[in-house]
Each structure stands twice: as C-alpha cells, then as structure tokens.
Write the structure tokens for this entry.
Amino acid sequence: MLRILILSNRPSAIGIDAMFRRDRNRTSVRSAIGVLVLVCLGNSFDSRAADHQVLPGALADRIASVTSDPSGAPIVVVFYARPNCRISALQTPRVKQLAQQWRSRGVSVVAVIPPRPDGKAVESFRVGHEWTDAIEHDVEFQFAERFDCHVVPEVLVFDRQGRLRYRGAVNDRYQLGVQQPEAKHRYLVDAVESLIEGQTIAIEQTEPIGCRLRRPRSGEANRLTYFRDVAPIIGRHCQSCHQPGMSGPFALTSYEEVVDWSEMICEVVDQGLMPPWHANPKYGDFSNANVLSSQQKKILKDWVAGGCVRGTQVSQSTSRQPLVRMESDRWESDRWESDRWEIGEPDAVFTSAEFAVPAEGIVEYQYEVFDPGFKDEKWIAAVEIKASNPAVLHHGAVNLVSPSGNSSIRLSGQAVGTPPSVYPLDTAKRLPPGWKLELIRHYQAIGSEQTDRTSIGLKFIDRRDVKKEVETIAMLDFTLMIPAGVEQHRVEMSTRVREDLLLISMYPHMHYRGRDFRYVATYPDGRQQILLDVPRWDFNWQHRYQLREPVRLPAGTTLTAIAHYDNSSNNPFNPDPNADVYYGPDSTDEMFNAFADIVSADQDMTSLKSRSLAWLGNNGVVMAASILGLLSFAFIGRRIA
C-alpha cells in the first residue's frame, strides 16, 4: 500500500530557504531559476555555497525555452527518473502530458537522470520517451545527495520563490506489481494546481514508489566478491528475465549492471518479490522452483553492505550461469541467446500478426487462431510461446480447438519467468487432425509504444515413442460471481479420479482480485494432502508448478481446488471494489481456472497396437458442482467422474 505522510496543513518550505538566499530584484529567467535547487547539478561551482549561485547556462536556456513568461520565475517540477525502471517508464508519459498542459501556465518540467553503467542514461531517456523538455544528467549524484533521493521516479515541486513545496510520487496508479486503470490520488497535479491558484497544498510529501537508487557509499569491507560469490546467484536466479530485450526492465549481465541495481536487488529480495516464486515451501517439491536460500540472501546483502567488491573474474561462465535448464533430458540449454528457442529448433512454428502495445493503460487479452492444416495426428513433446518483444508479453496460453470450434482443450500456458512446457520423457500431448491452435496473449504497457509478434513453437515426437498421453484437467467456474466489497470470497471445485493417475504439474489462474489458491488431494482412505499452496496470489506471475516427481492419485481420489478473492478496497490490485465481478476474459473480470496435467499411471501405449478409446472418448465434458451449487465444468472424460 502507498504510505502517505502529511507533514503539515500549512504551506511551507522544506529546507530550501535555509540553503539559498535570493536576489528579489532580478527578473530574468536565468537569475530567477538559478537560485533554485538545481544549482547542485553544476560541476563548476561549490553546490553548498549560498549566495547568488546560478544554473549552468545550458540548463537555464533550456528551461527558458519552455517557459511562456520569460519575465518571471516559473514553478519548477523536477522529475527524477531513469529509463530502465519500469514504474519510472510508466509514469513518464503522464509527466510529459502534464508538462505540455502546464507550459503556458508558468510551469517548467525538468527531467533529471542519474547515471548508469553504459553512460547513455540521458540519451536513452530522451530517445526512448521522445522527451522534448529540459533534461539534465546527475552525473555524480549531486542532486540525489543534496535532496536525499533514494527511489526513482520521484517528483520535486518548487514554487516561484524557489521553495520546495512537494516531493514524492506522481500519483498512486503504479506500485511494485500493481497497475490501476486510473489513479485515485493525483499528488503532483494537486500540488502544482494549488501553487498555480495560490492555494494551500494539502499533501506536501508522499513516499515515492519505484526502483531503489544506488548511490556511491562506503561500507565495511568483507571478503565477499562479485565473481566468486554473487555472480552465480544472479546467473541462476535472475538472468533468465534480466537480459537485454527480455522481460526484465533492466539487465543484470555484468558486474557494473548488478552494482547499479544492488540496492533494488536487496529490497525486492527482502520483500520476497524476487526471484518470483509463490508456492508455499511446506507443500510440494517443484523442479522449476526459483527460490533463494537464507544463505544466498545474506550473501547479497553483505556484499552490498561491504561495498560491492568486484574480485577476480575466473571465467566468463562464472558471471553468466546457464539461464534455463530443462528438467527433461530431451533438450538442455547451456547459454541464453535471445533469438533461440529454449526447446531447440521447433518442428512447427505459428506466428501472430503484429500487435501495437500502447505506452500505458491496461491492455485486454488478444486472441488469434491458427489452422495448422495437419491431415494426421501429431504428438507434442514440447510447447514454447515466444514473443518478439518479451518486455511487453505478460503471459500467453495455447488451446487446442475442435474443427467445429465448439470445444477447446488447454495445451500450454507460459508467463514471464516460466519455462516452456516440456513433457516428461516418453509422454506427449495429442493434436488430432483438423484441430486448430488458439493463441491467447496478455500484454503489459511499459511506458513507451511497442510492437510484438508472438510465435508458438511445437516440438513433435514419433507416436511409436509415446508411452503415456499427457492430458489436462481443467476445473473452470463459469458461474463465478464475487460481490462488491467482499474481502474473503471462497470458491471451491472438486473432481473424482476414476483410475490411477500420475499428477505432473498444476497451473492455477485468477486475475487482480485473486488472493490465494490451493490444490488438495483426498485419498480413498480419507487422508488429505496439500499438493500446492499459493498463499499470496500475484497476477503478475502466472507460474506452472512442475512437480519434481509425479504424485500418484489412486482411483477414488478427490482432487479439490480452493481459491479466495478479495474484492474490497483493501486489495491494492482491485480495479473497482464497488463492482460485482463475474467470470470473463478481460483482466477486470475474474477467473477460477484450476489446470492440472496428468497421465494414466498404468498406460503403456508402446505395447498397444491402437488406442483403446477414441479422442473424444478420452476428452469429453463432465459436470462438477461449484460451492454455490451451480454448474461449472471440468474437462478430461474418462479420467475423472
């Protein structure tokens, strides 16, 4: 939740009058602005001096060029931002819009950009966001030091007399992992409009929400070094997303980059936000779990506290570990390459039309159907969903659709940080002749206009090598309705297993109001086992939980999925706590989807001359009762009752 600190109900300066004395007889823009806070950006003078300091000429000229009234000092908004912070990027279009609106009203907006390792901070910000207002490089963190800036983005608003009157967040639309359709509180707008109208600023300071800024600091030296102690952790747990062109908002592929984001790394690791993994460690053993041990967390924190010592690079592989390793021994990646397929070269590829992703806002689901034109059945051993622009594809899913279009079966789902679906050795999913592929894409805005073309890659296996057929149980509550304001709405669905099965993986799915999700097996002898517990649902991370060893579900076992939803104002993700919510495809709708991949425990297709049952016999539709006594559906046919 965004914490707001109301310092005072009276207009006041926040320390600026004590720093500078102003010559009130000067009227030029250069002299009027020159006494403001930004004097600390000049390298040619002592920024702590108090009398008659002026801005470096180039910066003063840029501010003057966007000020409609050159005879008077403007209100100045400093936007302290950086291009490769996701929240900073998302807020930039709004600040640009405000700068344009305020330009004729005596308000100047200046972007101040902290340094980054590649030395292209200002250029990246200007070009990436098409920024046309004043911009300055905080090369040596002088601005950050003077005003104790620790988070980007942050805005600082100075009145016409040079006093700092507001600092903090632009608004409350974006938080870490949270994106609202609209802002509920417009902190920057309210502060500036109050100054323009000569009114009291109601809220003078809020806590900025964004990326933790690392400023140079001295720490007690310790024996930890980057290449020996830290690089293996970053390579194993972070680099699969934090690569150039990938979904991570910034890269972590070099010592300099890791140092630059070291404070942010410590913060998100402390909060449990990174690396992203949401299964309760008490239940289930998952091969794709991405979890830092307490010792690894301590190494990261101690290394940062000790001054981020570089150490000696032993080899290139020390700093970049294999990024994605398949649990199956069919295909294994040794090094990450952004243009290669993780499953190996696919046997078939289907690519979507180009989609334009806007700079901001919630983007609704996109659907596209491909007809592969296969005359014979295909057996799918691996599925990969690959975006041309991974930074904007939140998650994708592929369904198999019948020739009539009246029924569909889940094939695979893949989200940010989730590896492709690679089925266990000697198992595969069947694609019947005439069936089609439906690609479902959910995009996220990242602060600038983007485009993407998403591809489905399929890896086939010979039918004679398939021992077991992978099928998907899908418990879907199409009757879902969550009343407005309810904080703990429970939904439960169950299905009974008719033959011995092996559970391979689970893939729960909800939207913004999801709170928690759990899979429970009740065995014929009455014993219960929690198979998966997700105590803190996060819509931003749609994991497929791949069991290290399949769990046997004997005939007569009841598989139950239980979820809770928070449709109250206490849920920071909630788009509208005043609305009843129903099952639907849009992000502002809700879903209760409990997917589970299974195989028959006793099946051995290699010993059969033909399949025992036809496709539709294996994958019919059966009814399951929801907790409300209404009818919903569970797919899989003869496997469940």
Q: What stands out?
A: Residues 1-60, 316-336, 609-639 have pLDDT under 50 and may be disordered. The two ends are 44 Å apart (CA to CA). Residues 113 and 137 are 5 Å apart (CA to CA).
